[in-house]
Amino acid sequence: MWGYSHVRILLVDDDPVFTDLLCENLKERGFDDISVADSAYAAIDMVESQRIAFDCFLIDIMMEKMDGIELCAHLRQRADCRSAPMIMITAGEAEKYMDRAFEAGATDFMRKPLDPVEMAGRINTAMLLVQTTRVEQQSRSALRALLSFASDFDLIDLGERVSFPDVDGMVDYYQIENKFLRMQKGFYPISLFRVEIRNFSALFSSLERSNVFQHLHAISHILSQTVNARRFQMSYIGHGKFILCVIEHTDIVPQLLQTRLCENIRQTLKELPGGKPDETFLDVTALTAHRIQSPQAALKLLSKELASAQTPKRKALPEIDVIEKEIFSQVEKEEVKQSRSR
């Protein structure tokens, strides 16, 4: 578990009175490793000069030259900041900035004046989430390393979530979920779609892991370029499934989008190793029956989709005893061959 003393925080705010008070309050609650930058550019310089990356960012939105939202988007492009919690702080009306902030990669939102107890809780909760994700990634890496000794059983986790930062509108699933969690209660023009690679396991299970990612990257680009919407986000949730989220009135027709996507992927996949353009099809399904939804209803649909995408994961992971039996079987066959040759 993340202890308070393990969290390296960068506080970015141009108000020295506020930063002094907040640092003092946080240190009283165990956060004793806090650096302060008085502008977005100063924060970038500090991030680039640090040997050890910051674990968490507290960023004021209203700053001169480069505001906090622009800084958040800039930092998210760095590999060492991609998963770090970024808590945005504003003295104005939060609703004006929330959409832009979450689209830029913000994790949370707080309004001045801050409650030090609540701030400490938000930081700790965010860090626990980051640690859980890291433990999961380490566990997967350890399992891959264990199984890599048997080359015939090299593991490709087809259920792994993937996000490509260079693809416009593509974010991790939990960023979309977090966006809905932070929205005010009410009804919005929300449209959700599932885009699924048909026969995904059959098409990709024989490819090397790098080739699978090349295909997913290419398909993600095509999705981003083909969907005609201004407020659009998408996420790859595993096993060949993408979620598309549009928060505006849209005239997207699933069947027409499906036709356009299938036409666009053929030429691209021809150029990839192991590509099967004539066998690769994308199925588009509308998840929302109505064009006006509450964020809570959208969240239920998203959670259901994530659960369905993650359920088959175990099928992609061969049981250790199955691998063991197969290895011993091959050893026995080899011993029989050697005994006959004598």
Give the CA-based shape.
globular
CATH superfamily of the largest domain: Reverse transcriptase/Diguanylate cyclase domain
Which strand-content bin applies to the residues? 15-25%
| Second rung of CATH, namely the architecture of the largest domain | 2-Layer Sandwich
Strand order of the largest sheet: 2-1-3-4-5
Give the mean pLDDT.
80
Q: For the report, how would you describe the main beta sheet? A: 5 strands, parallel
How many domains comprise the coordinates? 2
**Rg value:** 24 Å
CATH topology of the largest domain: Alpha-Beta Plaits
Number of strands: 10
Amount of helix: 40-55%
Question: What would you call the structural class?
Answer: alpha/beta
Written as H for each helix and E for each strand, in order along the chain, the element string is EHEHEHEHEHHEHHEEHEEHHH
- Uncertain runs: 1-5, 145-155, 313-318
C-alpha end-to-end distance: 59 Å
CATH class annotation of the largest domain: Alpha Beta
Tally of helical runs: 12
GO biological process, one term: phosphorelay signal transduction system
Domain Response regulatory: 8-127
Keywords: Phosphoprotein
Pfam families: Response_reg
